[in-house]
């Protein structure tokens, strides 16, 4: 292994060790089960690992956590997001739920919008208006007074629906209690046998789309990868030519203070994602949330490309403080992207390296912002 390669791998190894140490310190705080609840003007804001809404006389609920359970009636609208979402009490207006496993076991007087790996509206529930749901498995057993629009791989309808139904799924099943008063339009890769007891055949519209062959699927994947790589190369080139001078400084900071840059990256990344919750709780900051959401992908990309530049420049043997042309910076980024792509393909270790590359790169830019340039520093007296 050459000296330049050793420098590159030492940089990655030191960052990985630092991340492991920081993760070990973060475990005790992450293991806390206490949830924070705040009621303001009849609105409940709750977050934590295990969130249980038990407050009475609440107008609107905003809850997020590992497990979110609504165990008290909500007069207005409820918003719930978590790994597991459980709704056990009536929601007076609309319900917005998202998670890995979403279970609705109480009446919803307004619309229901849900997304998750598994979404179930059980027989104890009912929806006063429309249902819009997306996921992998969707089960609808309670009555729906409006229309239903669902997208999933497997869909089961086992309850009465007063409006029309639109389904996009591979597997569609109808239970004993399924009834559709309006029309049924489904899109699948196979013909679905719809019982006449569910809906009259003349009110069913079938859109059967043949599944693509293996060759066609491979061609789509290859075309998608080519387009993705083309977009990435264009963005990398723009990044290299616009920030060619600052990239040399970020690389110097990464080489001299990797621990500091990793810490600053964690702080900056946490502030970036945490600001969304803070803005939501502050109410007046809600209009700024879309701006943060739009800026986040660019920050992630900038961090990753910055780390790629540092790795590529180290392998190419460029001096740390050399601010060359945009073409040279672009070449270093390409080399770094190839190295990171190879390392990211390693099982278990790959995603850790990718995350570290983003965090350390963001930390280098944060350090560049808060650290004044050498020319601006006042020399000390002799």
Describe, in plain words, how this protein is organized in 3D.
The chain is of the alpha/beta class and 382 residues long. The chain folds into two domains: 3-29 and 213-374, no CATH class; 33-208, no CATH class. Helices cover 43% and strands 26% of the residues. It has helices spanning 3-30, 214-242, 244-256, 258-282, 289-316, 326-344, 349-370; strands spanning 35-40, 43-53, 60-70, 78-87, 95-104, 112-121, 131-140, 148-151, 154-157, 160-161, 165-168, 171-174, 179-180, 184-188, 204-208. The strands form two sheets. Strands 1, 2, 3, 4, 5, 6, 7, 8, 9, 11, 12, 14 and 15 form a 13-stranded mixed β-sheet that branches. A hairpin with a 2-residue loop joins strand 1 (35-40) and strand 2. Helix 4 packs across helix 7 and helix 5 crosses helix 6 (326-344). It is flat, with a radius of gyration of 27 Å. 31% of the residues are buried. Residues 4-32 and 375-382 have low confidence and may be disordered.
Write out key terms for the chains shown.
single chain; 7 helices; 13-stranded mixed β-sheet; 382 residues; alpha/beta; two-stranded parallel ribbon; 43% helix
Instruction: Please write the string of helix (H) and strand (E) elements.
Output: HEEEEEEEEEEEEEEEHHHHHH
Q: What would you call the structural class?
A: alpha/beta
Strand content: 25-35%
Spatial shape: flat
Query: Major β-sheet, in short?
Result: 13 strands, mixed
Concise structural overview:
The chain has 382 residues and is of the alpha/beta class. It has helices at 3-30, 214-242, 244-256, 258-282, 289-316, 326-344, 349-370, and strands at 35-40, 43-53, 60-70, 78-87, 95-104, 112-121, 131-140, 148-151, 154-157, 160-161, 165-168, 171-174, 179-180, 184-188, 204-208.
